[in-house]
Design brief:
The complex is a heterodimer of chains A (about 80) and B (about 375).
Chain A (H helix, E strand, L loop, with lengths): L8 H7 L4 H10 L6 H8 L7 H17 L14
Chain B lengths: L11 E6 L2 E10 L4 H13 L4 E12 L1 H16 L3 E5 L3 H9 L6 E4 L32 E5 L7 H16 L5 E8 L2 E7 L2 H13 L3 H8 L3 E3 L11 H7 L4 E9 L2 E10 L7 H21 L5 H29 L3 H15 L3 H19 L9
Parallel strand pairs in B: 2-3, 3-4, 4-5
Antiparallel strand pairs in B: 1-2, 1-6, 7-8, 7-11, 9-10, 10-11
Helix pairs in contact in B: 1-2, 1-4, 1-8, 4-8, 9-10, 9-11, 10-11
Classes of the chains: A mainly alpha (about 80), B alpha/beta (about 375).
Chain lengths: ~80, ~375
């Protein structure tokens, strides 16, 4: 995204070229327990995920960015910055 | 092309006047129209247009996804020093915007008469049918985008919109198109002009070029300057004959599978710098969303295979998690974090880290049991 001060999880999802469904599947694959609807609500910041859920989503996105030739741009809960 | 534009019951149009962008939505802002609305917002925000007027006077209701997109666009505009104004007549839309806490971010106008676009506003310089002559109007101060033919199907209409937006807003773009693999063959489903159609056709004929490669490999191909290009020896001379010197092809993905490409062409070498590439990525993401929602060419078999694969991977990760919990005497979340950190530092998918953990235990137990062929559940 352009001109945005901070990326929301949904911005990262768009940049990662993932649909909501595909991101949820990748989250589920990593062991996530929340429903697709809940994950969508986390992305739109309508619900706040637990730190572990947030890390699962962050990691699903980061693995996708690695596939696209990038690094791990989405921060984790235990990242300091 | 008339001003009364419909997309399967939803009409959507955008026009730029000076530093104002007007987005008109008709019908219901629901699941089908939301990706388009999102694409329109992204386009105007990315193009740096500070003032956006969203005309919802002909919209009766807006669902949660529509609200989410509008909220996020309003926040992005405010963050970049811009502003969103919403025109609405519907008390239901008004109430929904209130409930979403949008009143602090936007201006709400309640016009007594629905504003009509001025005559000629909905001409589409970036969008012509394959048979009509190219109309280029670089001197015009009013840029109009959009317009979706009433009788076309939703996906092609949406992709035409994306092409028109890309053509109008990506700096250096002289033309744009969308290639899709349909019924095993590459087809151009939207093109800004005849030259672009010819460019795509040459790539299909020679079976090479950035658009073919992006569709097959599912990643970006950027030909900065065709004068120096060596990757496509059969196609490149034909492109140069058509006057094209730079090409940016971004992959389109439906449910994560490559299904096509968004191609942006320029007569100028090295036309596509950082900002143009960012915009192209935005449009490719939007087109991918549209294709994913439409389920383009992803069969039920492919989907069910994907779900089964995810289930197997989930089991392996859970098994590895259990092994680490036992080995290091830690909880499940901490065990996951161990694998996550290892995956991050090695840039390998977590499932591979998990597989290594599971395999190492198998080897250890095999060693311990001197190869008696134990069976792991």
């Amino acid at each position: 995204m352009v001109n945005l001060p901070a990326n929301s999880l949904d911005d990262y999802r768009r940049d990662a070229l993932l649909s909501h469904g595909e991101l949820w599947l990748r989250y589920f694959e990593l062991g996530g327990m929340s429903t697709a609807l809940e994950v969508e609500a986390f992305l739109y910041e309508a619900l706040t995920p637990s730190p572990h859920d947030r890390d699962l989503i962050a990691h699903a996105l980061n693995e996708r960015f690695v596939e696209l030739g990038g690094n791990h741009p989405v921060p984790y809960a235990d990242d300091d910055d | 092309m008339t001003a009364d534009v419909r997309l399967a019951g939803i009409g959507m149009a955008a026009r730029f006047e000076g530093d104002q962008a007007f987005l008109d939505v008709r019908g219901e802002a629901d699941a089908r129209s939301v990706p388009l609305l999102s694409a329109l917002f992204d386009a105007v925000i990315a193009s740096g247009c500070p003032s956006v007027i969203l005309d919802l006077t002909e919209v009766d209701s807006m669902d949660a996804a529509g609200l989410a997109v509008t909220t996020s666009a309003a926040a992005a505009l405010v963050a970049s020093g811009g502003h969103l104004t919403i025109r609405s007549l519907s008390s239901e839309v008004e109430r929904a915007l209130d409930l979403a806490g949008l009143s602090g971010l936007i201006s709400l106008e309640l016009p007594t008469v629905p504003p009509k676009p001025a005559q000629g506003d909905l001409r589409v310089p970036g969008l012509v049918s394959p048979t009509s002559p190219t109309s280029s109007d670089p001197g015009s101060r009013t840029r109009a985008i959009s317009a979706i033919p009433a009788n076309e199907d939703v996906v092609d209409g949406a992709l035409r919109l994306v092409v028109a937006l890309a053509r109008a807003t990506v700096g250096g773009a002289d033309g744009a198109s969308v290639t899709l693999r349909r019924h095993g063959r590459l087809t151009t489903v939207a093109a800004s002009d005849q030259t672009v159609l010819d460019m795509d056709a040459e790539q299909y004929a020679t079976e090479e070029g950035p658009c073919v490669d992006a569709t097959v490999a599912g990643r970006w191909f950027h030909a900065e300057s065709l004068n120096e290009e060596t990757r496509w020896p059969a196609f490149t001379p034909k492109a140069r004959t058509l006057g094209i010197n730079a090409i940016l092809s971004s992959p389109l993905l439906a449910r994560d599978q490559p299904v096509g490409a968004l191609n942006i062409y320029s007569r100028t070498s090295r036309a596509f710098a950082g900002k143009a590439q960012e915009l192209a990525a935005v449009f490719a993401a939007e087109a991918s969303n549209v294709l994913t929602l439409a389920g383009t060419d992803v069969t039920e078999d492919q989907l069910s295979g994907r779900v089964q694969g995810a289930l197997r991977t989930r089991e392996i990760i859970a098994e590895a998690q259990g092994i680490i919990m036992e080995r290091e005497d830690i909880g499940d979340k901490e065990a996951f974090d161990v694998m996550r950190r290892s995956s991050r530092s090695s840039s390998r998918p977590l499932r591979e880290t998990a597989r290594d953990v599971v395999n190492s235990t198998h080897h250890t137990s095999r060693d311990a049991e001197s190869g008696t062929g134990e069976n792991h559940g």
